[in-house]
């Protein structure tokens, strides 16, 4: 397949946009003016051509005054005229050697193309923008380039090591959203660029390291802007955080010292009272508190630049309705109780990576007045290497799901719910997902690595709708437009529940009741009562911020609605 070179795109645009069908190779020795041309006669869209180069306005004016004369319509004149070229999204695959002929070119922007190798930089070039290209190789020669934008490319730690050697005059360098994994190795390369004032590394796997900002501040002292933030503000923020950390440590050690002194006093009082004659009291060992040593600067263990830890804590804040069959009615329950009750599971996934699943049997729930509750939590920690796969997974976010496996039930003639039993007299099982939620943070910019939040659960069907995790700009307007449809769905669900309850009541009337096999039923009044009772256990968690997103717009025919259940989730990336 033929490469789509920069020069091919350039000359095509000159011919098509600037209406220069015939181009001489060299500038003629004599300049012969033809005649002035009107806008209609030139047929050049000035607004369009100045978008890819402001220099086209000068050429446009020259053509209007002199016509398409030979001293204008030649390659030598065109190459010398251009100082600024913007060819975004032109499917360019190669920076060919004709670029070297543009001796007056100061700014070149080739974003959103298909370039794999950076090469052939014009000698006077000051700014080079190459964002969103599949670049893996920098084939550079010594150059005085001052700004290089290589964000959203495919560069690894080794590929950027040539930058300080061949581009020593760089003032600004953007390496955001590449494949840089080794914080120490990459920062060492940047340290060698003595004039560097602006640097962006966010979006790389190395950003996930908890010491990210601290290591940058300690090693790149000449920066003025880092990750599109003021370097001084970052430094001040870190210093303030370190002061607060040390203050907490001092306070903890002060309390430990007070406890030690109190224990010593109690021991002294005990020794004064004495014991039996001739018998020494048993020695009491009191651990000496640590010596308080103020830490002026944060010290970094380089081993901590190799891995990062994800800590996740999840706690339910709402009732989970469930089934617990009567062991006296079903003797086999003694042998395998799991099959005769609801079994809940919370599963946490980092997209494509299952982290942990917590399971809970319904019989472990608090049973008060035949109202069951399941308020359970779990937490875990896991270490990861900062690589591209884990970066991409973290960028997509965490997916937490709540599911239940329980006996399949039917409404018997007496109006009671009973399990569907198989040939072995064991209940048939059914599995359903009660809800899913997604957790995202802006971790790839190096901050917001800790947060507490309550998330609403959405129905299982949203798990298969990729677009629902990323709100549209006008999503709320679209949802509002569908409120009538949403209300109809709610009314239909309510009518269905009323009809089911009416059927139960009807069968109860017919049978006049024969007792209960199920201790926990889908009774909304009881559920609410049960939820309010133990809420005091979760007071601290209830103060968390609540994610208010209750609807997700998918398309013209579908709007997802959140369930009534909430999850309280605490996330932390750090040591």
From TrEMBL:
<keyword id="KW-0433">Leucine-rich repeat</keyword>
<dbReference type="InterPro" id="IPR050576">
    <property type="entry name" value="Cilia_flagella_integrity"/>
</dbReference>
<keyword id="KW-0677">Repeat</keyword>
<protein>
    <submittedName>
        <fullName>Uncharacterized protein</fullName>
    </submittedName>
</protein>
<keyword id="KW-0175">Coiled coil</keyword>
<feature type="coiled-coil region">
    <location>
        <begin position="231"/>
        <end position="273"/>
    </location>
</feature>
<dbReference type="InterPro" id="IPR032675">
    <property type="entry name" value="LRR_dom_sf"/>
</dbReference>
<feature type="region of interest" description="Disordered">
    <location>
        <begin position="497"/>
        <end position="534"/>
    </location>
</feature>
């Amino acid at each position: 397949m033929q490469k789509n070179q920069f020069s091919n795109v350039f000359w095509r645009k000159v011919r098509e946009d600037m209406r220069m069908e015939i181009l001489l190779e060299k500038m003629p020795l004599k300049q012969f003016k033809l005649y002035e041309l009107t806008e209609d006669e030139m047929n050049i869209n000035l607004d369009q051509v100045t978008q890819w180069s402001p220099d086209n306005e000068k050429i446009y004016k020259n053509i209007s005054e002199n016509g398409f004369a030979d001293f204008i319509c030649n390659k030598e004149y065109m190459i010398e005229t251009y100082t600024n070229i913007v060819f975004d999204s032109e499917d360019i695959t190669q920076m060919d050697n004709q670029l070297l002929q543009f001796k007056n070119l100061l700014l070149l922007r080739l974003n959103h193309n298909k370039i794999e190798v950076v090469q052939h930089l014009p000698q006077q070039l000051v700014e080079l923008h190459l964002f969103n290209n599949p670049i893996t190789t920098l084939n550079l020669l010594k150059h005085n380039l001052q700004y290089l934008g290589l964000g959203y490319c495919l560069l690894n730690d080794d590929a950027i090591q040539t930058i300080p050697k061949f581009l020593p005059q760089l003032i600004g360098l953007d390496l955001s959203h590449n494949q840089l994994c080794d914080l120490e190795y990459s920062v060492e390369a940047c340290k060698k660029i003595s004039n560097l004032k602006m640097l962006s590394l966010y979006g790389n796997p190395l950003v996930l390291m908890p010491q990210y900002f601290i290591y940058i501040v300690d090693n790149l002292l000449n920066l003025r802007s880092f990750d599109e933030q003021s370097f001084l503000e970052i430094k001040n923020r870190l210093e303030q955080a370190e002061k607060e950390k040390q203050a907490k440590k001092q306070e903890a050690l002060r309390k430990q010292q007070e406890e030690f002194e109190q224990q010593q006093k109690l021991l002294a009082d005990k020794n004064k009272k004495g014991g039996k004659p001739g018998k020494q009291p048993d020695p009491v060992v009191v651990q000496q508190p640590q010596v308080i040593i103020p830490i002026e600067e944060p010290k970094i263990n380089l081993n901590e630049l190799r891995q990062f830890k994800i800590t996740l804590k999840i706690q339910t804040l709402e009732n989970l309705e469930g089934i617990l069959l009567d062991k006296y009615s079903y003797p086999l329950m003694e042998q395998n109780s799991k099959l005769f009750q609801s079994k809940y599971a919370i599963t946490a996934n980092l997209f494509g990576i299952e982290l942990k699943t917590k399971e809970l049997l319904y019989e472990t729930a608090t049973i008060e007045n035949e109202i069951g509750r399941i308020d359970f939590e779990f937490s875990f920690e896991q270490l990861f290497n900062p690589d591209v796969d884990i970066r991409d997974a973290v960028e997509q976010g965490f997916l937490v799901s709540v599911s239940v496996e329980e006996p399949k039930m039917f409404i018997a003639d007496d109006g009671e719910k009973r399990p569907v039993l198989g040939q072995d007299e064991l209940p048939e099982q059914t599995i359903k997902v009660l809800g899913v939620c997604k957790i995202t943070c802006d971790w790839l910019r190096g901050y917001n690595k800790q947060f507490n939040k309550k998330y609403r659960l959405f129905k299982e069907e949203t798990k298969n709708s990729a677009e629902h995790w990323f709100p549209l700009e006008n999503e709320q307007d679209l949802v509002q437009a569908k409120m009538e449809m949403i209300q109809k769905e709610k009314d239909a669900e309510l009518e269905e529940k009323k009809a089911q309850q009416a059927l139960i009541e009807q069968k109860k009337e017919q049978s006049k009741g024969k007792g209960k096999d199920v201790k926990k039923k889908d009774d909304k009044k009881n559920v609410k009562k049960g939820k309010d009772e133990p809420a005091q256990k979760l007071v601290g968690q209830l103060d968390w911020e609540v994610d208010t997103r209750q609807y997700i717009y998918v398309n013209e025919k579908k709007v997802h609605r959140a369930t009534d259940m909430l999850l309280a989730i605490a996330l932390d990336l750090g040591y």
